[in-house]
Amino acid sequence: MGASIVxxxxxxxxxxxxxxxxxVLVIIAGNVVGKLVVTYPWLIWLGVKQAGxxxxxxxPILPWYxxxxxxxxxRVHLLPGGRPPFYAA
Length: 89
Fold this sequence. Notes:
Elements: H1 2-7, H2 16-33, E1 37-38, E2 49-50, H3 61-78
Parallel strand pairs: 1-2
Helix pairs in contact: 2-3
């Protein structure tokens, strides 16, 4: 989840609607990829499940990257000026 927030940083400088579209697409991709089951471990960081392996302490990059992008979109549209009221600049 932390990596998702760091990877969402470049979207701070693009159009907010791009953040919304990318976030929705990444969440949909995460749901599709999350249903895949493979025998090799190379893609588990994306959310692909490995047959016979169950991880209880793991959060895949998809769909959490999409959640971070949606958070960036909401930040701009829900907060005045895109910053919290207690922000000191």
